[in-house]
Amino acid sequence: MKIAVIGYSGAGKSALAKRLAAFYDCPLLYLDTVQFTSGWRERDREQALAIVAAFLQNPAWVIDGNYRKFYQQRRMEEADRIIFLRFSRLRCFWQAFGRYLRNRRRTRESMAAGCNEKFDWEFVRWILWEGRTKEIRGRYADICRRYADKVTVCRNRKEVSRLLEGLTV
Questions:
Q1: What is the pTM of this model?
Q2: Which residues pair with residue 37 across a beta bridge?
Q3: What pLDDT digit, counting tens, does each position of 57-75 carry?
Q4: How far apart are CA 14 and CA 133, in angstroms?
Q5: Can you list the alpha helix ranges (DSSP code H) found in 40-128?
Q6: Which residue of 16, 86, 106, 140 has the smallest Cβ count within 10 Å?
Q7: Which is nearest to 5 in space by CA: 107, 145, 154?
Q8: In 3D, which of 116, 94, 95, 131 has the Cα closest to residue 8?
Q9: pLDDT tens digits for range 80-106
């Protein structure tokens, strides 16, 4: 099984991806660990692409993240299932804030080593506005249209719970 988990920042992509990878017993790649190195520095693009390309060779996988530059089209095409977390702005904001409170001064496993949890104005702007521009919403709509037969859209936690309850091997 190959699963791509996409969606808005703060929606819970990493938590869902972790549960799916455990359920299907397959490798998991958090694209944030590819994008960043210690101290929130961006990784060299060629090195990052090599990491993702190597991971895609696995016969089964779960990949958490959007990042168009990391073979997004290929990931969507190869995925058996695409899960789009389309939570509201406010839900994403509150979930990201709660995550910050739980992980302050620590690095989550879904982040690169040395990238401690942060919740700054730049991230708030991304969650509420910049990560939801017409262009970005259009990209998600395009994925949902192009791969309609394998996309599942979850708009809230209840729909994610139903998705997890209905998992089959």
A1: 0.95
A2: 41
A3: 999 999 999 999 999 999 9
A4: 22
A5: 45-55, 72-78, 89-103, 121-128
A6: 106
A7: 154
A8: 131
A9: 999 999 999 999 999 999 999 999 988
